[in-house]
Amino acid sequence: MTERQRVFFALWPDAAVAAALYGAARRIHAQTGGRLMRRDGLHLTLAFLGEQPAGRVEALRRLAASMTGEAFELLLSHAGAWQRGRIVWSGPGAAPPALAALAEGLAGALRAQGFEVERRPFAAHVTLVRNALAPPPPEVEPPVRWLVGEFALVRSHVGTDGARYEVIGRWPLPAPDGDAAG
Ligand code: 2AM
Questions:
Q1: Domain range for residue 136?
Q2: Is 78 known to be catalytic?
Q3: Is the CB of 156 inside a 6 Å radius of any atom of ligand 1?
Q4: Torsion angles phi and psi, residue 56, rounded to 5
Q5: Whose CA is nearest to atom 19 of ligand 1?
Q6: Which end of the chain is more exposed for a tag (fewer CB within 10 A), N or C?
Q7: Residue 179 within a domain
Q8: pLDDT (tens digit, 9 = 90+) per residue, 18-31?
């Protein structure tokens, strides 16, 4: 039997951003109840692929390396809920153009290579709580500022206590021309 891996492309925060996001998640969770996501698993999905034969992962790496994206700033200032309020997330007021371009570029490149990806429009969000019992506040206070300079390929190991994630590749997003670093 071919080994299969559950994989997706995502923005993966560094430790400082993960800590800030987790702080926001805890404050929101105090209002919503439910299951708080682990600090080391917080992420923003760019393109979800699901189960793939392990042999296809190399093609995903090549595809990622061929993407031409740019670094951008993401301000996670809004909160909301989906699935009858059970999934609570944080996201930007509007996705920065470089983020939308990266997600759409990945989806297009994946489809061109025969991978099945979601047809629904990209909705930038970081899931913070599952099985929420009450609605979140509409805003993340203070907002979480995330300077995004890379994207990642992530493998998810689904267990009885939720998913654990393993970053299996990272690719830089260079600063736009004329932008000072930092
Ligand atoms: P979620 O956080 O909104 O649940 C790993 O499972 C990541 O991929 C999660 O961020 C999850 O989004 C997303 N994901 C899981 N299943 C998906 C699907 N069928 N389509 C799109 N995204 C999915």
A1: 4-160+168-172
A2: no
A3: yes
A4: -85, -10
A5: 48
A6: N
A7: no
A8: 999 999 999 999 99
- Would you say residue 178 lies in a domain? no
- 118 C-beta closer than 6 A to ligand 1: yes
pTM more than 0.90: yes
Sign of the dihedral defined by the CA atoms of residues 140, 137, 125, 155, in that order = positive
Tell me how far apart the alpha carbons of residues 89 and 156 are, in angstroms, rounded to a whole number.
19
Is the pLDDT assigned to residue 178 strictly greater than 70?
Answer: no
Query: What is the number of structural domains in the chain?
Result: 1
51-73 pLDDT tens trace: 999 999 999 999 999 999 999 99
Query: Taking 60 as the threshold, does the pLDDT of residue 182 lie above it?
Result: no
Q: Distance of CA 49 to CAs 18, 52, 96, 107, 109, Å? A: 23, 7, 23, 10, 13
Ligand 1 atom, smallest distance to 165 CA: 5
Query: The tokens 């998810």 sit on which residue?
Result: 156
Q: Is residue 87 one of the residues assigned to a domain?
A: yes
Cα-to-centroid distance, 72 and ligand 1 (Å): 22
Active site residue 43: yes
Q: Is 90 in the pocket of ligand 1 (CB under 6 A)?
A: no
CATH number for 9: 3.90.1140.10
